[in-house]
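TICKET: design request
STATUS: open
ATTACHED STRUCTURE:
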């Protein structure tokens, strides 16, 4: 079967400043929370050089044009703009991103600019990161400077990427600095404060009468009961509320619905805590929900959940050895591998049905907003052979998920574009450089780029907007 994409559907790729830039000690950049964390001996990798996008962005953007990409998500490194707590703006950092944006536009690449992708300046992180009010105030100042400097050229802004991933990594799994585990109440409070910061940035942007659009990107991964039993169904519902519904309510509903708060507080009772937002905060969320122009959806996998009331346990699959991960949180549930669902070497389910279900769920439960798939991709162990990488697994993965997107569009969901994670191989927050996602292979010894087979496939898709469906996929969930 042949399927076609609308003429205005955007084909792009994604990057993230800390994961690709390098140049950590150049251009007046200050320290961020990840620098020292990744330089510990037990990590074995850091972001000092990364993929050297800091020096090579011009050639990377020119290649993007040559391969028919229409858009790139780029994030601004907050510590490049405000490197120190004295409030001084780093002009060299602003100039770097100004040149980067101009290079995109000169090559016909639309920059989708992310204000924040996990790289809190170290001086703010040490004061409590997003749990401290000072961080939200500093973020609004930072956003204002970016809007003023780049707002006439940037037509798509993303305030924050992946609030749940960050909150979970910092306070549930302990994989992100500051390495706390099982503090779900802190994760909830942090997400709430990030949503308030997002909302205030949206209000600021709209008050400045700039010509573009502004939204937020959430990592949204569906949760299903491993078996259709009441306890498992409740566990899946609770995980979904924590990871998805809480943030979708804040972004699109303009506040937390009573049922969402009831379930969040059921989770938090295991810590003897509760979450009760005040009326003034809800007013901020409500106003911003009406002003937000679009929603970004980052999707990689879904989860199959069983009821769990044992001890908290998280084991991270750091090396890509399939079957070694564990995620079990008392009062929520335990993630179980479903044998009929394939998975990556890092135990992430390959389940495009979850993306379809999530898109329809947003359509059915929230006010309509245009949606961009702001991240989707697969991490693979890969080797360069004769100057190329035959990554047919990536092509199949992308094809399946684009079919899920088209299925959702057939059902009336307004999806405006798709961004592959990632443009090039990049630093993984928890897996270093072995886990490769890029359309371009990066030889980290030389920093040379090599287009993978998937890049040529995607180039053809972006040019013709026609996709041949080789294998039909099921987009109605699994029993």
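STATUS: resolved
RESOLUTION: sequence designed for all positions
ATTACHED SEQUENCE:
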């Amino acid at each position: 079967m042949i399927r076609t994409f609308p003429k205005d559907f955007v084909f792009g790729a994604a990057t993230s400043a800390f994961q690709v830039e390098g140049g950590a000690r150049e251009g007046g950049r200050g320290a961020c929370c990840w620098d020292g964390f990744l330089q510990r001996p037990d990590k074995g990798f850091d972001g000092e050089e990364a993929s050297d996008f800091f020096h090579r962005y011009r050639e990377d953007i020119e290649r993007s044009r040559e391969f028919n990409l229409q858009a790139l998500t780029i994030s601004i490194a907050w510590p490049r703009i405000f490197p120190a707590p004295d409030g001084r703006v780093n002009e060299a950092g602003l100039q770097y991103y100004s040149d980067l944006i101009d290079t995109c536009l000169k090559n016909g690449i639309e920059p989708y600019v992310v204000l924040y992708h996990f790289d809190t300046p170290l001086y703010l992180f040490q004061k409590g990161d997003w749990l401290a009010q000072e961080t939200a105030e500093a973020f609004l100042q930072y956003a204002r400077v970016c809007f003023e400097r780049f707002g006439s050229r940037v037509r798509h802004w993303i305030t924050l990427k992946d609030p749940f991933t960050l909150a979970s990594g910092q306070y549930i799994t302990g994989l992100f600095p500051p390495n706390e585990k099982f503090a779900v109440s802190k994760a909830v409070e942090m997400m709430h404060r990030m949503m308030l910061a997002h909302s205030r940035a949206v209000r600021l942007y709209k008050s400045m009468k700039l010509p573009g659009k502004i939204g937020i990107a959430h990592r949204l991964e569906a949760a299903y009961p491993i078996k259709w039993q009441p306890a498992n169904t409740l566990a899946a519902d609770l995980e979904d509320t924590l990871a998805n519904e809480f943030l979708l309510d804040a972004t699109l509903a303009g506040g937390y619905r009573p049922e969402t708060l009831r379930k969040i507080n059921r989770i938090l009772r295991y810590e003897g805590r509760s979450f009760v937002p005040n009326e003034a905060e809800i007013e901020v969320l409500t106003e911003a929900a009406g002003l937000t122009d679009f929603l970004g959806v980052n999707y990689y996998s879904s989860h199959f959940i069983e009821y769990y009331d044992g001890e908290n346990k998280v084991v991270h699959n750091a090396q890509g050895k399939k079957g070694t991960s564990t995620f079990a949180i008392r009062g929520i549930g335990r993630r179980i591998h479903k044998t009929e669902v394939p998975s990556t070497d890092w135990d992430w389910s390959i389940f495009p049905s979850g993306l379809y279900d999530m898109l329809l769920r947003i359509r059915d439960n929230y006010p309509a907003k245009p949606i961009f798939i702001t991240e989707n991709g697969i991490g693979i162990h890969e080797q360069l052979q004769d100057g190329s990488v035959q990554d047919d697994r990536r092509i199949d993965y992308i094809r399946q998920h684009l079919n899920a997107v088209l299925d959702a569009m057939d059902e009336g969901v307004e999806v405006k574009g798709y961004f592959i994670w990632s443009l090039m191989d990049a630093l993984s927050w928890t897996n270093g450089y072995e886990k490769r996602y890029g359309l371009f292979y990066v030889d980290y010894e030389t920093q040379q780029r090599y287009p993978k087979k998937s890049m040529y496939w995607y180039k053809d898709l972006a040019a013709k907007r026609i996709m041949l469906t080789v294998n039909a996929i099921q987009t109605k969930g699994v029993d």
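CLOSING REMARK: The mean pLDDT is 96. The first helix runs from residue 17 to 20.
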